[in-house]
């Protein structure tokens, strides 16, 4: 007796310290308490999920029988969930679905939220497997809501992973990857290695359908490493299969075949018809694509054999019958609840009727008292009317005061916005006048000096050629700045309008490239218009012309001889991105953060071309005036890409919209 007692006292400590199958089997042989025996069978079932799914099923079944015998509802519910998982891996979907419904029913009666969440999640998995996305999503939502309510982070991470699988089936691969990543981040934090390995597998596998499949390999290899540490043979087969698919997409056929064969070898060891079938399909496809139809046929026979063992169509029919039976059961419960509520309502009505009878007697007595009080009330009636009238006037005055207060507040808000806009425009005007007083004066001073030198000195033809070259560059710089200032001044004039209409991007780009061809040819730069013909945006064409021309000029300026300037367009749901890319010297990280700010600066082009620092400021303001914006991506030494973001053209008629710009005084 003392030995048994000592064993029972030490059992919880041993359970926490040892979870490998051999230790658990030793403890199972010594356990004499039904609840602990059920718990040990459940732990063994979880452990064998990693290596021997049939043993996992065996211990789950033992736990179900023992828990049922001793009326241990929570233990039975957990054991049924484990049994359902084993049936799922073995491809016995109908039996798995029945287990999870029974588990949910028991967990609800025992009010065991962790098992309820697990059951909801497992039912979602089952309906996902039989291609019933609507029901799968409904059960995942139930699991997620309950996990959030009870702060069950472990359960929530599994729901996020499974939601990723649903979105992968819907071919929303980016959204699926977000859910897998969210699950993996939570599982890392919670140190849930088994669940993390599954999420990493899914993160790697979804890259099969993304533009860069090679990015999925690190996740698959990390999943393989975790599963090898855990001795999880069940998941290894699928992860190796996903790696094989990626190598096949990358053109490494030998590596793909090597991983596919290893996947098939491990699948056979699991004795899971579903996993053997999946691995055989992969090898069949690889050999068929290589033209090795003999090997492809051999694996096709394996696929057919496993299909016959699985008998998926029969299982789906059985699953549908179980679903219908469960939904009928739920409907009957709802009808019983409704009937009980009706009976309760009848009792309430009877009680109310009795109360009304008593109330009628009370009302009669009150009427007598009111009749007595009526005469007294008459005396106060006149004074009450006066008080009511005074109160009415007070309410009206209060209402008027509130309206006036609201009006004043609204006017104050408008005034604040106008003041902010005025300050913004005044600040920009100050910067423009600073440019006029400094930058514009400088080139004209240089031009005047050159002309005086030509007039007063007897210069050689070589000197004259050099001076006229300098004069031409100064004139180009001055004209560029004057054009920018004139466009900005026009946008500020009172009554200046922005004409928003549907504009085809391709011809606008073509016109500006034609204007700048000569500048590009001087530097041997290739200009490429890669904008699709049917790309339309909703904007002001004149302002768009200036911005595109300015950005192309900048690209030419900062691109070395023999470089490339390319203009493209990307259509999105509600907007169009116009990309102006160059292979120039790029922008340093320091200067990149100063673009589009009040901190104006200029840098010399690849042939020492000058700039005013005004162009990008004007481009930013002009695009914002037509509900657009400008972004930039650049790396020093590798070129730059300026991105104009504007609304996509719709079927609406062109509009004439008054600008919010202030008058330039």
Give a nutshell description of this structure:
With 665 residues, this protein is an alpha+beta fold.
Can you summarize the main beta sheet?
A: 5 strands, mixed
- CATH homologous superfamily classification of the domain at 496-658: Histidine kinase-like ATPase, C-terminal domain
CATH topology assignment of the domain at 496-658: Heat Shock Protein 90
**What is the share of helical residues?**
over 70%
Instruction: Bin the strand percentage.
Output: 5-15%
Average pLDDT, to the nearest integer?
A: 79
Span between termini: 104 Å
Main sheet strand line-up = 2-4-5-7-6
Low-confidence stretches: 1-18, 651-665
TPR repeats: 117-150, 157-190
Keywords: Coiled coil, Kinase, Membrane, Phosphoprotein, Signal, TPR repeat, Transferase, Transmembrane, Transmembrane helix
Signal peptide: 1-17
Domain Histidine kinase: 435-650
List keywords for this structure.
665 residues, alpha+beta, Serine Threonine Protein Phosphatase 5, Tetratricopeptide repeat, Heat Shock Protein 90, 5-stranded mixed β-sheet, 3-stranded antiparallel β-sheet, 22 helices, flat, disordered C terminus
């Amino acid at each position: 007796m003392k030995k048994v007692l000592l064993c029972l006292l030490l059992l919880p400590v041993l359970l926490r310290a040892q979870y490998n199958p051999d230790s658990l089997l030793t403890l199972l042989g010594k356990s004499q308490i039904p609840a602990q025996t059920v718990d040990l069978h459940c732990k063994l079932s979880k452990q064998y999920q990693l290596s021997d799914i049939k043993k996992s099923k065996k211990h789950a079944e033992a736990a179900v029988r023992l828990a049922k015998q001793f009326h241990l509802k929570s233990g039975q519910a957990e054991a049924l969930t484990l049994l359902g998982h084993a049936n799922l891996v073995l491809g016995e979907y109908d039996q798995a679905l029945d287990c999870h419904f029974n588990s949910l029913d028991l967990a609800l009666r025992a009010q065991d939220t962790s098992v309820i969440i697990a059951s909801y999640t497992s039912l979602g998995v089952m309906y996902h497997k039989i291609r019933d996305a609507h029901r799968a999503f409904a059960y995942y939502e139930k699991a997620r809501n309950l996990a959030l309510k009870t702060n069950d982070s472990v359960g929530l991470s599994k729901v996020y992973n499974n939601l990723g699988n649903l979105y992968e089936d819907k071919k929303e691969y980016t959204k699926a990857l977000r859910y897998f990543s969210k699950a993996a981040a939570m599982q890392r934090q919670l140190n849930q290695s088994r669940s993390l390995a599954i999420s990493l597998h899914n993160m790697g596998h979804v890259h099969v359908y993304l533009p860069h499949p090679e990015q999925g390999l690190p996740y698959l290899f990390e999943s393989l490493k975790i599963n090898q540490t855990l001795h999880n043979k069940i998941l290894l087969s699928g992860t190796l299969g996903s790696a094989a698919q990626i190598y096949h997409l990358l053109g490494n056929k030998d590596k793909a075949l090597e991983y596919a064969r290893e996947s098939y070898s491990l699948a056979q060891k699991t004795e899971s018809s579903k996993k053997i079938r999946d691995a055989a399909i992969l090898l069949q496809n690889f050999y068929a694509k290589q033209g090795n139809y003999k090997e492809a046929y051999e694996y096709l026979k394996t696929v057919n054999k496993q299909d016959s063992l699985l008998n998926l169509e029969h299982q789906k029919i059985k699953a549908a019958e179980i679903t219908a039976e469960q939904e009928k059961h739920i409907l009957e419960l709802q009808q019983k609840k409704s009937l009980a509520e009706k009976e309760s309502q009848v009792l309430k009505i009877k009680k109310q009727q009795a109360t009304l009878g008593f109330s009628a007697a009370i009302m009669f007595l009150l009427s007598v008292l009111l009749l007595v009080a009526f005469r007294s009330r008459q005396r106060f009636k006149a004074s009450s009317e006066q008080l009511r009238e005074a109160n009415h006037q007070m309410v009206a005055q209060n209402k008027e005061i509130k309206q006036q207060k609201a009006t004043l507040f609204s006017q104050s808000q408008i005034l604040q916005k106008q003041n902010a806009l005025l300050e913004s425009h005044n600040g920009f005007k100050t910067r423009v006048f600073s440019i006029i007083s400094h930058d514009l004066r400088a080139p004209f001073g240089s031009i005047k000096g050159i002309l005086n030198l030509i007039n007063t000195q007897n210069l050689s033809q070589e000197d004259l050629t050099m001076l006229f070259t300098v004069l031409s560059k100064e004139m180009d710089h001055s004209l560029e700045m004057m054009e920018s200032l004139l466009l900005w001044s026009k946008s500020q004039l009172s009554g200046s309008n922005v004409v928003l209409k549907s504009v085809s991007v391709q011809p606008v780009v073509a016109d500006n490239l034609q204007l700048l061809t000569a500048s590009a040819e001087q530097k041997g730069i290739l200009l490429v218009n890669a904008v699709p013909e049917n790309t339309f945006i909703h904007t002001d064409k004149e302002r768009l012309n200036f911005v595109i021309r300015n950005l192309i000029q900048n690209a030419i300026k900062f691109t070395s001889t023999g470089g490339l300037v390319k203009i493209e367009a990307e259509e999105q749901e509600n907007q169009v991105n116009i990309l102006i890319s160059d292979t120039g010297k790029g922008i340093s990280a320091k200067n990149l953060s100063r673009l589009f700010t009040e901190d104006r600066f200029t840098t010399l082009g690849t042939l020492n071309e000058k700039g005013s620092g005004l162009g990008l400021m004007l481009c930013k303001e002009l695009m914002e005036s037509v509900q657009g914006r400008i972004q930039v991506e650049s790396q020093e030494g590798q070129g730059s890409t300026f991105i104009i973001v504007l609304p996509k053209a719709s079927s609406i008629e062109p509009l004439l919209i008054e600008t919010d710009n202030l008058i330039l005084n």
